[in-house]
Specification:
Layout: H1 44-59, H2 78-87, H3 102-110, H4 113-124, H5 136-147, H6 159-162, H7 181-193, H8 200-206, H9 211-222
Helix pairs in contact: 1-4, 2-4, 5-9, 7-8, 7-9
Amino acid sequence: MFRVRIPVACGSAAAFVAVSVAAAFAPAVFAQGAAPAKRGPVDVKKGAQIAQEVCAACHGADGNSSTPANPKLAAQHPEYLVKQLADFKPAEGEQQAQRPSAIMAGFAAMLSPEDARNVAAHFASQKLEPAVATDAALAEAGRTIYRVGIAAKGVPACAGCHSPDGAGIPSQYPRLQGQFAEYAETQLMLFRSGERANSEQMRTIAGRLSDREIKAVAQYMAGLR
């Protein structure tokens, strides 16, 4: 199912979760490698407490952000969220994180690996209140990119890895359906510029997309159900 609402929503976009890729670059693109190994059962109740105390101001206690600058985390695959939290922190021996963010670096540094797993499990268990596409013409143009790709540019179909309805594949590719178009657009721009460096495949793909193509596929993903 695909939904569109007009006129265009207000808001800007910033940094924390994800965008589109394709089967030609499998096995792992958005996940960018295996998530940290699990260590015992997660504590969803503790995760909810962390979300309320640390994450709610930007993402909502249930992961349904109301601001396009901050992504919706509800129903996202927990392995993906854990991986992204790790990527906001510099790896051992490195000065810069693969996913630089002055805001998220501080929050991620506060969380232990167990905290990250718990809060990710909490958000994954929440029901998504999806965003909608706000530009019908752009969303229609994005449909082709998402479902078929752009052969002339070597851009594979996003659906190949993120599934036709944008649900993604647990532990490998994130859920994109119902994500704010403004947020998705910003992340694709960051991949294209190289500022976001935690997926070489996404950097390659985004580097082949024009501004309008990025806007179009972001709009289409917002309307996916």
